[in-house]
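Below is how a single chain appears once it has passed through the pipeline. First comes the sequence as given, then the structure the pipeline wrote out for it. We keep one example in the README because the format questions we get most often are answered faster by looking than by reading.
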Amino acid sequence: LYHGDPPSMIKSLHSLMNAIRTIFTISRYYNSSEKATGLLLKITNQMLIACKVHLTNHGRERVWEQSRKEVICKIADCVNLKDAFREAYKYTKDKMARVPGGDIYILPTFVSVKKCF
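Resulting structure:
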């Protein structure tokens, strides 16, 4: 997540969510909704940072200085990342709901990003 752009992050979301599910299931420390939510919050914050970096070409250009077509493509990449995250989260949450005590709650940080666009 630290070195990827939104399109490359999409490819790793399902394996990342599977790893989180495994951690939540096995770990004593992360075996609570509060700890799992904190971990997911850190992940969504990193995705937001990656979207900002993607939109600004690593802070070198403002959005308004780029071509409209390029910015629209980059915004679409970020929205696709949000949608893929939501899908992977929902899939993992549904899978965990079948396990007793496996429900996770996440703060709606990344879900509300679409309103920014």
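Confidence is low (pLDDT under 50) at residues 106-111.

See the next section for the split statistics.
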